[in-house]
């Protein structure tokens, strides 16, 4: 029967029964980097609020003003009745900020990748992805009519072998994350650009965790590596540094126009709410005019990374404010999460398939607004819990 698999799925219930279920925790209140869960205040180190803008007064006021002017929803798709003047304004601003000809916004980041990839990759085309790319990229490739190829994570020789074996003259699109969201490492973008030119492949970067964080001006991984003009499509989300909801893509006008008029994920979805659009516009102002937020974020990142490593934790290959603490087996990761939870520290335990089997980790991520006192509390909590669980000696 079709639902037999549902009845046989008991793993979540079993984890709940023994108090080792970390998912779907209902947050009752948010104040800065503090959240309340089941009446208990905790320090949040599991959010992607990199620049600390979720409760910035200017941002909150912009959202409220948009609701007053436009209401709470468009109740329609961009294609028909769901385009507001602020949607157009946002796309013009994003194109200018990212130094590209045009931009297009979607209602979620997941839909953004679905819309781009399933639209531009057609029959006879090849789409080449890193094995650690985000799930939205993997699913989008399945929706396309192209042939999908995966290469070992950040292995440029493996990528070149795939490119060399592809038939000359076919469309080729290499798609990579700029910042890999679980391990926090960066893509080897300069080498991908070199290989793309050598083998006639176009390049798309999912920079959900890079925009606002990487680069002198916050334009992301491509700016960080100095290859902005060599990357054809850059995708970003509004649910990280922009403290909102939605996603966008930037590129050449003709490519963006084609996606705009063919992407089912755009045409058949309600548009981003007015409050979400206004939030992004307000946060974009801050990103452009307050570089000191990025400077503080990197100071926080260095403090936490060096602090974890000094204790003996393995933080893997991270180069960003996403700092994983590598644990190994799933049970130890859940025990570490529970111990941290009891100390008042909100973290994210990550297990297969988000990471390879046997490489479970505690994913932490930081904000420019984390105070030194909060950071010291987190480090002390990790040291205590690491010893309790047996990860530290």
Name the average pLDDT.
96
How far apart are the termini? 50 Å
The biggest beta sheet is recorded as: 7 strands, mixed
Spatial strand arrangement across the major sheet: 4-10-9-8-7-5-6
The tally of strands reads: 14
Strand content: 15-25%
Helix content: 40-55%
Order of helices and strands: HHEEEHHEHEHEHEHEHEEHHHHEHEEEH
Provide the CATH superfamily of the largest domain. Type I PLP-dependent aspartate aminotransferase-like (Major domain)
CATH architecture of the largest domain: 3-Layer(aba) Sandwich
Shape: globular
Low-confidence stretches are none
| Tally of distinct domains | 2
What is the gyration radius calculated from CA atoms?
21 Å
Counting DSSP H or I runs of 4 or more residues, the number of helices is 15
CATH third-tier fold name of the largest domain: Aspartate Aminotransferase, domain 2
Category by helix and strand content: alpha/beta
CATH class designation of the largest domain: Alpha Beta
